[in-house]
Structure to design on (760 residues):
């Protein structure tokens, strides 16, 4: 009986991304029966995160052989007999992708985006610079590498470069047919157009070659993922030296950790010096560009030479399908938490302790139940990732990367490092307590609020803070509050009060930081807090948190009201993307402010407790739901002071020009004149029912004709004290720059006064 040589039946091999793609004359075909490109945002974000974290590892661990990232298995068979419509356009070899098309396609998008940004950096270098030729040489070396990812050289035809990846049934390789005729799938059509733009640069020297873009609004599609990747490159990679964040290392860190030969083929001390000097001279445009280049090259290096596939080539297509089915249809992938359990059980056994029916088992089950609740493997993995990353942030300020090996290492190493069984058991208990908080946080909505033993006023404040922080997707709030929630579970004295104080302090800190610096450096600051607490071997508490927040703001130049206001004037502007932040700002600003009777239209601060808007009930109230621009966003017919629309200030988007209104009134008010607006505003600014009923007569004088239904809606609106100051101006005054500036100034004073209390 013949001996079967199984190794020859499947031909497995390990290939770096660069080695796999740059095979000469090889085209990759996604067969017609395969589903379309469908990777969602989560899949793409995970791949991008893996690349970023891989580069971080190179900085932390050094450029050693162990720092690689496995991208999974590709199942590939070589096409036997061409079915190409244009035989002259056929590559030397066609590899059919049985499994792996989503990764293959996504990497091609990343490669084209990197090419575009490399050439974008080159455009910004002045040709007369002494470094221009060196930079141009380096960029072109890396561009050629990336071009190998998206194309192969047919060695003939017009153009000679053809898209590397096409889809069967939609596309065909061609020597001379038009792009629109030969490449109909999104990805192949895009790459064909991209190649033409690249050749425009390569052949004609057109450094401003017009590369195709991605269409906005197609989230989860080729274009949507393209936009996501572009954002990642621009905001996370190219700008890393400007961002006070830890998502990607700065060039100053990279230049000392990644061998120069890997970045630009040989040592270039002149270029290295520019990067090293940037830290002391951040205003240098050339230094900033060089930093962007180093960061982009580092990401490129990791993707091409540190990311790898296991490529399996079955001898025939039937075996390929069997293998595909076996790899994709059996079993549920493990998460990092599941193989951690034997470490716990074995450790207890070695100490003569029984795991079954122990407190450790009870806590472990609490964690397992929480992690196993999702009904798909992907959701389960996501929940596990979020849990472990968040927990270790709170435990000791450590950033844990969201892939299996890093998470498992964090769990095992932390557990093993603890000297006593009591400490080890406490770790499991803290994790169990943490999952209980996460469940409360995840379930929180208008129907499921936090319910604790505290006064109604305090619970209003707590649920407002939770709702605002959740709407802001402020994940570090989870870390902070989760670390305090353990006190409530253990029923410690004053635990509820400490939790509420922490929620208020976190809200105030986040608000002041967000309106001063955006999100730059925010996560790092939280991690510093938890690390400092861990180093001091103490559990974190509300007093420590408040003191740390105040110190962190002070170190960033926010020591008092005036420091913050200088930032706030520039940063608190209405955008469609930050409506919750603006709504929160207005609720805080209207709390304890009253009309200034000496200056019509103006506000002034009152004593504490006069007017309260800073509650969860108001946050969710339909009466305070929408943001109204008093001077509208479009100055139709020039009805408002043109100074409000000066692009250098955009005062029409500032707090001073904004208020809150019920939806019914907001839609009616629209872009009307100020006099017309005041008429409608009066319905929420007046308490006297007789005066409200008399308002209809004003409508006729102003030439306004609201219908009966509208009038009834207006009369049903609840009284809002903050509208009084605007209505005090009457129908015949102007809403102008002076009033908006003065109003904004008082509102910012009120915000600082009201939120600063939460940090005291």
């Amino acid at each position: 009986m013949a001996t079967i040589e199984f190794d020859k039946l499947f031909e497995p091999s390990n290939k770096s991304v660069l080695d796999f793609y740059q095979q000469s004359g090889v085209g990759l075909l996604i067969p017609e029966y395969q589903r379309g490109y469908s990777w969602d945002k989560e899949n793409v974000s995970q791949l991008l995160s893996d690349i970023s974290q891989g580069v971080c590892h190179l900085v932390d661990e050094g450029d050693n052989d162990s720092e690689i990232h496995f991208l999974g298995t590709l199942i590939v068979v070589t096409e036997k007999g061409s079915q190409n419509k244009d035989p002259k356009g056929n590559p030397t070899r066609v590899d059919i992708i049985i499994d792996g098309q989503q990764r293959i396609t996504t990497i091609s998008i990343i490669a084209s985006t990197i090419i575009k940004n490399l050439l974008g950096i080159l455009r910004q270098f002045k040709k007369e610079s002494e470094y221009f030729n060196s930079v141009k040489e380096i960029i072109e070396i890396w561009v050629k590498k990336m071009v190998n990812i998206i194309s192969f050289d047919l060695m003939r035809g017009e153009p000679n470069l053809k898209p590397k990846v096409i889809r069967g049934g939609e596309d065909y390789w061609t020597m001379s047919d038009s792009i629109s005729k030969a490449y109909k799938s999104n990805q192949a059509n895009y790459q064909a157009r991209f190649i033409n733009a690249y050749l425009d640069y390569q052949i004609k020297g057109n450094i401003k070659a017009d590369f195709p873009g991605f269409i906005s609004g197609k989230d989860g599609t080729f274009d949507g993922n393209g936009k996501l990747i572009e954002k990642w490159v621009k905001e996370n990679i190219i700008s890393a030296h400007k961002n006070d964040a830890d998502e990607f290392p700065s060039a100053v860190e990279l230049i000392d950790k990644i061998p120069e030969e890997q970045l630009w083929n040989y040592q270039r001390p002149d270029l290295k010096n520019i990067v090293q000097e940037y830290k002391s001279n951040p205003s240098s445009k050339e230094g900033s560009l060089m930093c962007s280049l180093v960061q982009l090259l580092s990401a490129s290096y990791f993707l091409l030479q540190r990311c790898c596939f296991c490529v399996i080539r079955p001898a025939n297509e039937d075996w390929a399908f069997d293998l595909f089915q076996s790899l994709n249809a059996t079993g549920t992938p493990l998460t990092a938490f599941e193989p951690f359990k034997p470490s716990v059980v074995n450790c207890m056994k070695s100490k003569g302790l029984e795991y079954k029916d122990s407190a450790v088992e009870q806590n472990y089950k609490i964690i397992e139940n929480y992690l196993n609740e999702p009904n798909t493997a992907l959701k389960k993995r996501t929940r596990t990732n979020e849990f472990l990353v968040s927990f270790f942030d709170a435990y000791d300020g450590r950033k844990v990367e969201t892939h299996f090996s890093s998470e498992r290492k964090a769990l095992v190493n932390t557990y093993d490092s603890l000297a006593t069984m009591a400490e080890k058991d406490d770790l499991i208990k803290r994790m169990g307590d943490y999952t209980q908080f996460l469940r409360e946080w995840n379930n929180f909505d208008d129907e499921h609020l936090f319910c604790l033993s505290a006064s109604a006023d305090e619970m209003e404040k707590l649920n407002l803070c939770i709702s605002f922080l959740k709407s802001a997707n402020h994940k570090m709030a989870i870390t902070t509050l989760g670390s305090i929630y353990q006190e409530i579970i253990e029923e410690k004295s004053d635990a509820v009060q400490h939790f509420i104080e922490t929620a208020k302090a976190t809200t105030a800190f986040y608000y002041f930081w967000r309106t001063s610096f955006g999100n730059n450096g925010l996560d790092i600051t939280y991690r510093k807090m938890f690390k400092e607490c861990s180093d001091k071997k103490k559990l974190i508490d509300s007093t420590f948190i408040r003191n740390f927040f105040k110190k962190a703001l002070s170190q960033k130049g926010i020591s008092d009201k005036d420091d913050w206001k200088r930032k706030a004037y520039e940063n608190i502007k209405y955008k469609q993307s930050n409506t919750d932040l603006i709504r929160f700002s207005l609720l805080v600003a209207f709390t304890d402010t009253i009309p200034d009777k000496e200056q019509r239209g103006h506000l002034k601060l009152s004593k504490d407790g006069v007017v309260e808007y800073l509650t969860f009930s108001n946050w969710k109230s339909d009466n305070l739901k929408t943001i109204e621009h008093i001077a509208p966003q479009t100055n139709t017919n020039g009805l408002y002071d043109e100074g409000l629309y000066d692009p250098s200030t955009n005062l029409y988007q500032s707090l001073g020009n904004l208020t809150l209104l019920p939806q019914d009134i907001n839609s009616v008010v629209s872009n009307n004149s100020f006099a017309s607006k005041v008429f409608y505003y009066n319905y929420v600014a007046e308490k006297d029912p007789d005066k409200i009923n008399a308002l209809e007569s004003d409508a006729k004088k102003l030439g306004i004709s609201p219908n009966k239904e509208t009038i009834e809606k207006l009369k049903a609106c609840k009284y809002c004290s903050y509208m009084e100051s605007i209505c005090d101006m009457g129908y015949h005054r102007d809403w102008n720059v002076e009033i908006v500036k003065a109003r904004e100034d008082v509102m910012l004073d009120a915000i600082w006064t009201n939120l600063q209390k939460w940090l005291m």
In short: The longest helix spans residues 101-124. The chain has a mean pLDDT of 89. Residues 382 and 402 are 9 Å apart (CA to CA).
